[in-house]
Design brief:
Elements (H helix, E strand, L loop, with lengths): L10 H14 L14 E11 L18 H9 L2 H4 L2 E9 L11 E2 L2 E3 L7 H13 L8 E6 L3 E5 L5 E12 L14 E8 H5 L4 E6 L2 H4 L4 H12 L2 E7 L4 E4 L17 H10 L13 E3 H12 L6 H4 L4 E2 L2 H21 L10 E2 L3 E5 L10 E7 L2 E6 L12 H5 L3 H34 L1
Parallel strand pairs: 1-7
Antiparallel strand pairs: 1-2, 1-4, 2-3, 2-8, 5-7, 6-7, 6-15, 8-11, 9-10, 10-12, 10-13, 14-15, 16-17
Helix pairs in contact: 1-2, 11-13
Length: 440
């Protein structure tokens, strides 16, 4: 079903219901696995932009002694809010050497420090440091949280951190002043909820897996793997900002005239092996994918048209014969898993990219738990701790069910593909050798 909703058709009404439900029923705390002590928090910041025909006539005052639920009711009772355009704030990270998520679209946030009182305090502090937005003022409502996730390396079960998303609503009718930290943030973008929900904005992100396969093999090994397997393809959402703020002091925002010119060989290598533009490249489309898209999946599916599962697509590859083999090898599994998805099931916030994988965890076991295999980022197997496809109300995470066993079949498909390519190469070699003998 396509999204035909306009700003006047009730999206704010649905948002009010979702935020009230998140406030009423918070997701449970997820303790760290025994082998990982790091925690990180991000802030999902929402605002409502007034429309031309429904502009606020006066400033609404809030009684801070009221509960968050009462403050939400008071805010959404205003006509300009009811007819307004809900938006979410994203950042584009600055380019940093060694950063797994360099240049990615993300939510403000970062690692929890020892001085942080709790996970929410970490989200508030990091937001203030990265974009200069104070989430503790009277015009900001702390709504609740989304499912916490154990983030693992994509090549195994090593946990990196527990990721905790928190939801905040700014009640201001004007744009808050942002102060971007140049070493952390290249730009900020307010994205309308309607654009995030629109099927027309669904696209894919292409990830170069050659570096993962040939870390020690150098340029030629990476080029060979890229030529053989192509790109890995992940679901993504194309972002349409209503308002953008660039950090002009970010290194690389303006061309560096003193930067030494690259040789032809260096430019050829970059052209062959780079699929991720630097964060200073303002011409590249903004894409929401990977871990951040995973965080948004639960939230977006609570809103009409509730079609996150239908728009979700399985990870695959771009090389035609590998893509075909993946499709054939996983066909019956995909059909079987689709039958197990119950109507109305909430989509998984399964998130993966070329480096990491993450799943929400709603129930933790003790240290002798089984490490159950789930999704992967790239081609490595990610793992979670405890049950992740059951929400607290007993409903299932639909995409989590759809992914069961998929990556095991994907690895099998790669081996079949390699055998197929060896066989084709052998046949071609023998045929060429016979042809040369005849010509002699």
């Amino acid at each position: 079903m396509g999204l035909t909703m306009t700003s006047d058709s009730g999206l704010s009404h649905h948002l009010h219901g979702v935020l009230s439900e998140l406030n009423r029923r918070p997701y449970p705390h997820v303790p760290n696995p025994s082998s990982c002590k790091k925690r990180a928090s991000v802030a999902l910041i929402i605002r409502v932009r007034p429309t031309y025909d429904h502009w606020p006539s006066s400033t609404h005052t809030y009684d801070t002694s009221q509960s968050a639920r009462e403050q939400l009711d008071g805010f959404f009772s205003q006509p300009w809010v009811q007819h307004g355009e809900p938006e979410i704030l994203f950042i584009k990270r600055a380019s940093r050497v060694g950063d797994r998520w360099t240049g990615h679209v993300a939510l403000p946030g970062g690692k929890r420090d020892p001085e942080d009182a709790d996970d929410k305090a970490a989200a508030i502090r990091e937001t203030s440091e990265e974009i200069g937005l104070d989430l503790t003022t009277e015009d900001c409502i702390s709504v609740g949280n989304l499912p916490e996730r154990v983030v693992t390396t994509s090549w195994g079960s090593e946990p990196l951190m527990v990721l905790c998303p928190f939801v905040f609503l700014t009640t201001r009718s004007d744009s808050p002043t942002l102060r971007l930290q140049p070493t952390e943030v290249a730009s900020t973008h307010w994205i309308p909820l309607r654009a995030l929900l629109s099927p027309s904005q669904r696209t894919v992100e292409y990830v170069d897996m050659s570096q993962r396969f040939a870390r020690q093999g150098g340029f030629l090994a990476r080029l060979a793997i890229r030529s053989l397997m192509g790109w890995m393809q992940f679901s993504a959402v194309r972002l349409l900002p209503s308002e953008t703020q660039q950090c002009t002091t970010t290194p690389g925002f303006l061309p560096d005239d003193d930067k030494p010119k690259r040789s032809v060989v260096q430019r050829f290598k970059e052209w062959c092996l780079s699929n991720q533009a630097e964060s200073s490249d303002t011409t590249r489309p903004l894409l929401l994918w990977g871990l951040t898209l995973g965080i948004l999946a639960d939230f977006l599916d609570m809103l009409p048209p509730h079609s996150a599962v239908q728009m979700w697509k399985y990870p695959t590859f771009t090389v035609p014969d590998l893509r075909l083999i993946v499709s054939v090898v996983t066909y019956h599994l995909r059909k079987r898993n689709a039958r197990n998805v119950k109507p109305g099931a909430r989509p998984s916030d399964t998130a993966s990219d070329g480096e990491t994988a993450a799943l929400s965890v709603t129930k933790m076991k003790c240290d002798d738990h089984d490490h159950n295999e789930v999704g992967i980022g790239g081609l490595g197997v990610g793992r979670y701790y405890g049950a992740s496809d059951q929400a607290t109300d007993g409903t299932s995470y639909a995409v989590g069910i759809m992914l069961r066993g998929y990556y095991d079949r994907l690895k099998m498909a790669i081996w079949v593909f390699l055998a197929w390519r060896v066989a084709i190469g052998s046949v071609a070699g023998i045929s060429a050798w016979r042809l040369l003998r005849r010509l002699r």
